[in-house]
Amino acid sequence: MGNVVFQHVYKHYKGEPNPAVNDFHLEVADGEFLVMVGPSGCGKSTTLRMLAGLEDVSKGNIYIDGKFTNYVSPKDRDIAMVFQNYALYPNLSVYENMALGLQLRKVAKHEVELRVSRAAKMLEISHLLTKRPAQLSGGQKQRVALGRALVREPKAFLMDEPLSNLDAKLRAQTRAEIIKIHSQLQTTFVYVTHDQTEAMTMGTRIVVMRDGRIQQVAAPQILYDEPSNKFVASFIGSPQMNFIDGIIASHEDGFYFENRRLRLPLPKAYARHLQGMSQGLPNSRRQVVLGLRPEHVLCDADALQAEPYGEWQVQVTVAMKEPMGSDTYIHTDLGGTAIVSRADAHIPVRIGDTIKLVLRMDKVHLFERESGESLLLRGASV
Amino acid sequence: MTQLPPPKLSQLSRTLELFRSFQKPLFLRLSKLKRVSISKSLLIVCFIGLAFFMLLPIIFLFNNAFKPMNELFLFPPTIWVKEPTMRNFEQLFLHAGAAVVPFTRYLFNSVFVVFLSLVVVILVSTMAGYVLSKHRFHFKGLILSMIMLSLMFAPETVAIPRYLIVSSLGITNTYLAHILPFIASPVAVFLMKQFIDQIPDALIEAAKLDGANDLYIFTRIMIPLAAPAVATISIITFQAVYLDIEGSTLYTTKETMKTIGFYVSSLTINLQNSVAGQSMAAAAALLMFIPNLIMFLLFQRKMIQTMLHSGVK
Coiled coil: which residue ranges (chain A) (predicted)? Predict the structure, then answer.
């Protein structure tokens, strides 16, 4: 069992001006399932590899289970890693692949057999033990790779995009399996992925990274409901959050979100976050990006008639429909800005129709145009 | 009721068609049979011709070995033997039996030198290839470019410096003189490095996390995976060492330290029996060629695999 602590960790590569990992400061609790997510090249894999000892730490400290680990060799860190391309030894059988780590650690033979057979049973690969990796399918290979990590019974499991080489169905299946394994073992998992769905479904806590920097660390639901900046808001959630450029205008009856086509009143509750935006500031300082999730863009008849939503209506043209079965994504055009609404599957709209939408201003996120920081969380979390 | 029996007609026309097609040139016929484009069939014909042309020396070699004396000196020379005979082999063995140094001594020298060179070259090139491919260290780029550079020299240009090194090391007239010049084989190191580049880093990293040290990774993971490249290097080195006469002519003066390659080439050079030598040389050339052929046939598939992997075609 082990907790992992990163203290202001940096990774500089020679000849590159910006660090690949920039001030990564985080504590992973024992038994936690931490997911690091971000676009490719954001430094998430580098961070994981530093934790594994496969990359040197340029600056900062890493502790595993309370022990300073910067200079400990990978094999002595008592961690197991699962790689994206499985990294099974092609010349060894499945059994030998799984047993190698234990044999090299001089674990007694009967113990090795016991642990391998137990892990194989857990992953349902007992019938494959004598086969070579080349004879296995992608999903089976990934199970073997998982098994190889399991038998080690390490302090922490590190996983570097283990599911990205699998097809959609297998991915969902293996995802569920990893969640199950975690709940059984209660060991620390550090999981790297670029897929926000994986991050949302698996993690007890998610780290969103960009350009080597941590953007936000939070539980999945908090990340979804309260993104700290525009990047996190756009990265988490599918379909993506809608963004509309505009300014904050203060009038006698409260704050408004305005642009050339829109003038929407903001709820009173936001007033305290927007105080700084009030009078006296030039327009340029009041520029914001309004973010609204597709499920908060309503277009059904009930919503249009609902009393509180009356002043949040806008007129748009339907550009595209994406029927998903359970619901339909309606892509609309609001004077050049694309707005996506998650609507009922049977909604009777056609491409080219002009329809009314309700933008639920009580659910909006407001981000500073320049920095992308959330205005509504300012003061709350920072 | 006056219907003509259609199968017969079609059969006839097909036969006619077939007959006509034989009058067409080969590439047209090919295109008809396998439904390949004319350009493709032309290409196939060309390559078959080319392949046969490449095969000619080997056919010539086999035929020559069985030609009687008069056929060997025929002008213009013929490829196919008319009256095959074993005389050449008899002569060769007689000559070898009468020589000052027994034939078996040359053979032993060759086997010994080839074996040791193979072992050492494989060891050195796999180790060097592994380190150059998968490890980071200072001056790696420089070392790599030095190896590339040494690939560009024709062997003749380095014969003198090589001699100076061998003689100043004081290893003339020893087996080391035969072996040492071959150990530093840039081709082998380069091939090996290219091949190991293909092996994913994750494999090594997984092994490191499993607790394997470099030696374990090298012997248990790298070597088995690099087997095709090892086979290729074996062929290349075998041919180079086995056919080498430089070691025997330049670095050794004692007849007992010379190799079979040198012995065979000396058969024709020796002026006293230059005419009789021709027949023996023909037989000896075949005998020399056979181990090469066996080596190649054994490792052929692996060799092609390596060439594909290393981007050297």
Answer: none
Q: Assess contact for A147 and A93: CB atoms under 8 A.
A: no
Domain that holds residue B137: 92-309
Contact criterion met (CB < 8 Å) for B206 and A81: yes
pLDDT tens per residue across span B135-156: 889 999 999 999 989 888 887 8
Judge if B190 and B43 occupy the same domain. Answer: no
ipTM for the predicted complex comes to: 0.82
Task: Supply the pTM of this predicted model.
Answer: 0.78
Domain boundaries, given as residue ranges, for chain A: 4-235, 242-368
Same domain, B161 and B74: no
Whether residue B283 is found in the same domain as residue B156: yes
Q: Which residues of chain B have a CB within 8 Å of the CB of A90?
A: 225
Residue that the structure tokens 């201003």 belong to:
A361
- Sheet containing A327-334: order of strands: A297-298, A354-359, A313-323, A327-334, A337-344
* CATH of region A242-368: 2.40.50.140
Query: Which among A183, A170, A211, A185 has a CA at the least distance from the CA of A118?
Result: A185
Q: Which residues of A touch chain B, with CB atoms under 8 Å apart?
A: 52-54, 73-75, 79-81, 83-85, 87-91, 100-101, 104-105, 148, 152
Residue B1, in any domain of the structure = no
Give the closest-approach CA distance of A134 to chain B in angstroms.
13
Looking at CA atoms only, how far is residue A85 from chain B in angstroms?
8
Q: Which chain A residue's Cα is nearest to B205?
A: A54
The Cα–Cα gap between B41 and A132 comes to 41
Residues of chain A contacting residue B216, judged by C-beta atoms under 8 Å apart: 104
Going by C-alpha positions, the residue among A245, A322, A331, A254 that lies closest to residue A284 is A245
pLDDT, one tens digit per residue, over B61-108 is: 888 888 888 888 888 888 888 888 888 888 888 887 777 788 788 889
CATH top-level class of A4-235: alpha beta
> Cβ separation of B211 and A81 shorter than 8 Å?
no
Tokens representing A375 are 């205005």
Which of chain A's residues have a Cβ under 8 Å away from the Cβ of B203? Answer: 87, 89
Which of B205, B211, B225 has its CB closest to that of A101? B211
